[in-house]
Write a structure and sequence with these properties.
Strand 8, helix 18 (about 420-425) and strand 9 (about 430) form a beta-alpha-beta unit. The relative contact order is 0.13. It contains 21 helices and twelve strands. It has about 500 residues and is of the alpha/beta class. Mean pLDDT is about 80; it is low at about 140-150, about 165-195 and about 445-495. The N and C termini lie far apart (about 95 Å). The strands form two sheets. Strands 1-2-4-5-6-7-8-9 form an eight-stranded mixed beta barrel. It has a two-stranded antiparallel sheet with strand order 11-12.
Length: about 500
């Protein structure tokens, strides 16, 4: 757009040229044509002068702007160079810090590996010492059961380390007698009343009904410890039934009859109630402890019984992170629509699940994790069986890492020797349970709702159905009490 000053200058130049022409025509007396030519010539010169003067003025203005732009560009380049220098210095510091941290991590990893090797060597030494002690021990002493100290009821308030100091570990079996398999160990009971020993199924069913009506359903607790620290992290509730003579009936002797007669739902309700009571006592001292409560498949599939259990668990929903409901592997493999829906209802309320009675390692961790399973208990003998590497889809040594990717912890159960612990550490197993650490024990009398009056020396349990615990032989021989392991063995048990 042409500026007003330019228009005004043009008008002035025209007026000046016209005035000059008129003056020449009127005063000098030249002709009109000549006056017009002179006027046009004057106008041309004025236009040329104005154009040259404006060009010179614009050049000076543009030169100043270019100088300012050059100074700004130089300043920007200087700032970019400064930022580049600072960025290079920062990258150098980060690289130096990463190198230092990597060296520190490598040194810490080396120390941890060295400590792990020392722990394995120590455990191997302890195992060798136990074998030597077992070889030097007399046969009758090995056959005798542990004394009253081992049979003492468990104290939920005292720390596990104090209870271990008060109760010596089980006496090792002599090498002359081959170790009994887990299935054979589970068939022996202490002061128990098996169905085949003077009781038929009708009598056992009547005893079971009376025990339920008279509230003679007891629970024993067996700890699950971390490996290799052996710190108690969970307890498993093991179910026992007392008859009229206060003799204990093991779980595997009455579970099948209870399921066939429809009494298993009432038993599960009573056990669940007492597990909640025990858990509340435990959490007074330690908020991180948990209790595993076994639930039968028929209870999960019975709508009436499950509705009662669900109402009770809903009322105790605050304990969901610490109360783990345990089912058999066969139960999860044969879930129907009703069982699946009930299981989802429990998971929706925050309860976690565990699988026990594992018979093979064909496990789908993603599917189990989606259903709410957070623990899988596998017998140590099954994990350490070399035949499992060829029959299963994954090597047992990789099972813990595979389950961990889906948030599932592997628990090795039925651990009965130090050698098994050493091998399980190589498999990266984090939790262990078994007679090596502690047998199932009744609660102290002050927990009357959970003990049901069971005397301390009535039973000593190993693992079995409905709680991976059955009673071991309870002979009343006068054999000397088991020897206390001292020295390296005692040190290894504290690690």
């Amino acid at each position: 757009m042409i500026r007003i000053s330019t228009i005004f200058i043009a008008i002035c130049m025209v007026l000046v040229a016209a005035s000059l022409g008129l003056v020449l025509y009127a005063a000098v007396g030249i002709s009109g044509t000549e006056s017009a030519i002179v006027a046009l010539t004057a106008l041309t010169f004025l236009i040329l002068y104005n154009a040259v003067s404006m060009r010179l003025r614009d050049r000076s203005d543009v030169g100043g702007q270019i100088a300012d732009l050059s100074r700004g560009t130089a300043d920007l380049a200087r700032q970019v160079a400064e930022f580049g220098r600072r960025l290079a210095a920062m990258e150098g510091r980060i690289a130096s810090s990463n190198s230092t941290n990597s060296d520190r991590i490598q040194s810490v990893v080396g120390e941890i590996n060295e400590l792990g090797g020392l722990v394995r060597q120590l455990a191997s030494t302890v195992s060798a010492h136990e074998d030597l002690l077992a070889g030097a021990a007399p046969g009758p002493a090995a056959a005798a059961v542990a004394g009253p100290e081992q049979e003492a009821p468990i104290d939920l308030i005292a720390p596990f380390e104090e209870r271990q100091a008060a109760a010596p570990p089980p006496f090792p079996a002599p090498p002359a007698v081959p170790p009994r398999p887990a299935a054979a160990v589970q068939t022996h009971t202490a002061n128990a009343v098996p169905a085949a020993n003077g009781r038929n199924q009708t009598q056992l069913l009547a005893t079971l009904r009376n025990a339920i009506d008279e509230n003679r359903i007891d629970i024993f607790l067996q700890p699950m410890v971390t490996l290799p620290q052996r710190k108690v992290r969970f307890y498993e509730a093991v179910t026992r039934v007392r008859d009229e003579r206060d003799q204990l009936i093991a779980a595997e002797d009455f579970i099948s009859i209870a399921e066939a007669s429809g009494l298993i739902g009432r038993i599960d309700n009573m056990v669940m109630l007492r597990c909640v009571q025990v858990l509340r006592r435990l959490m007074v001292r330690n908020k991180d402890v948990g209790v595993f409560c076994n639930v039968a498949a028929s209870t999960l599939g019975n709508s009436t019984t499950f509705a009662q259990c669900l109402d009770f668990l809903e009322a105790n929903r605050a304990l969901a992170p610490s109360l783990v409901l345990e089912f058999k592997q066969s139960t999860f493999r044969n879930l129907g629509p009703a069982e699946t829906e009930n299981l989802a209802a429990l998971a929706q309320r925050g309860f976690r699940f565990s699988i026990d009675h594992v018979t093979d390692l064909r496990i789908e961790p993603r599917e189990l994790a989606d259903r709410g399973v957070r623990f899988i208990k596998v017998p140590a003998t099954l994990l350490l069986d070399p035949r499992q590497a060829s029959t299963s889809d994954i090597h047992p040594s990789d099972l813990s890492d595979l389950l961990g990717r889906f948030g599932i912890d592997l628990i090795a159960e039925r651990i009965e020797g130090e050698r098994a612990v050493v091998d399980l550490l190589d498999y990266d197993v984090r939790f262990g349970q078994g007679f090596l650490f502690a047998p199932p024990r009744p609660l102290r009398p002050e927990g009357a709702s959970a003990t049901g009056g069971a005397s301390p020396n009535q039973a000593q349990d190993t693992q079995g159905p409905n709680g991976s615990g059955t009673q071991s032989s309870g002979a009343t021989s006068s054999a000397p009490p088991p020897q206390r392991i001292t020295g390296n063995a005692a040190l290894a048990r504290r690690i």
